């Protein structure tokens, strides 16, 4: 059965934070707790996509962030830009980095390369499955450690883009993301009030002007 923890959707009401815009694309700093796209239920319709549509009626979302993840979310302002963005994501020429706080001390940098599949009995959870899973790879780099809290700050670079990839991969190596209610065994043993995962960097070659676009967003944690 799907996981049901009595969830009530209460998205933050902060004004839309536009952090990049040109003639073809617009990027926002999505707050944690806001859906990237509307859910099926009426009460889940409020989303980053609908909020962007209020300002840019032709906008199309180019990728997604989990509801609990904050940070850079890129939209195309017209159909040609949407097609171009889709091709860049497929070719993996759009670079994305995330900042996360994870449990424990990470002593070395490295990569996680294990396949993932939906855990249908407990969806939306994803699990490692070496026979049926789809390839998934994440690079990680430790950029800080708080010995009092036993928490590492890590830079994460997804090579692939599987659902919950960063969250499952960090759990797999024994360093679950702090306040992750799906994958941390004790998610509430922290003073954080949100999951500590933030999309902090996105770059690509602008397909119409051939200009390098770099977008940066600092996490609140």
From TrEMBL:
<dbReference type="GO" id="GO:0008033">
    <property type="term" value="P:tRNA processing"/>
</dbReference>
<dbReference type="Pfam" id="PF00849">
    <property type="entry name" value="PseudoU_synth_2"/>
</dbReference>
<feature type="domain" description="Pseudouridine synthase RsuA/RluA-like">
    <location>
        <begin position="24"/>
        <end position="171"/>
    </location>
</feature>
<dbReference type="InterPro" id="IPR050188">
    <property type="entry name" value="RluA_PseudoU_synthase"/>
</dbReference>
<protein>
    <submittedName>
        <fullName>RluA family pseudouridine synthase</fullName>
    </submittedName>
</protein>
<dbReference type="InterPro" id="IPR020103">
    <property type="entry name" value="PsdUridine_synth_cat_dom_sf"/>
</dbReference>
<dbReference type="GO" id="GO:0140098">
    <property type="term" value="F:catalytic activity, acting on RNA"/>
</dbReference>
<comment type="similarity">
    <text>Belongs to the pseudouridine synthase RluA family.</text>
</comment>
<keyword id="KW-0819">tRNA processing</keyword>
<keyword id="KW-0413">Isomerase</keyword>
<dbReference type="GO" id="GO:0003723">
    <property type="term" value="F:RNA binding"/>
</dbReference>
<dbReference type="InterPro" id="IPR006145">
    <property type="entry name" value="PsdUridine_synth_RsuA/RluA"/>
</dbReference>
<dbReference type="GO" id="GO:0000455">
    <property type="term" value="P:enzyme-directed rRNA pseudouridine synthesis"/>
</dbReference>
<dbReference type="GO" id="GO:0009982">
    <property type="term" value="F:pseudouridine synthase activity"/>
</dbReference>
């Amino acid at each position: 059965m799907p996981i049901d923890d009595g969830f009530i959707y209460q998205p933050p009401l902060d004004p839309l934070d536009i952090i990049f815009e040109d003639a073809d694309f617009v990027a926002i700093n999505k707050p944690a707790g806001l859906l990237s796209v509307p859910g099926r239920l009426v009460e889940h319709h409020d989303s980053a996509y609908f909020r962007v549509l209020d300002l840019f009626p032709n906008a199309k979302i180019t990728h997604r962030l989990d509801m609990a993840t904050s940070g850079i979310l890129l939209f195309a302002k017209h159909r040609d830009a949407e097609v171009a963005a889709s091709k860049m994501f497929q070719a993996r020429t759009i670079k994305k980095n995330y900042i996360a706080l994870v449990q424990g001390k990470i002593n070395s940098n490295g990569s996680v390369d294990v396949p993932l599949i939906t855990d249908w009995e407990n969806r939306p959870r994803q699990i490692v499955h070496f026979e049926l899973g789809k390839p998934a790879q994440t690079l990680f780099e430790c950029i800080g450690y708080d010995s009092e809290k036993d928490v590492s700050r890590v830079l994460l670079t997804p090579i692939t883009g599987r659902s919950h990839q960063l969250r499952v991969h960090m759990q797999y190596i024994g360093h679950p993301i702090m306040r992750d209610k799906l994958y941390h065994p004790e998610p509430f043993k922290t003073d954080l009030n949100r999951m500590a995962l933030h999309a902090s960097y996105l770059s690509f070659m602008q397909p119409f002007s051939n200009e390098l676009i770099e977008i940066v967003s600092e996490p609140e944690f």
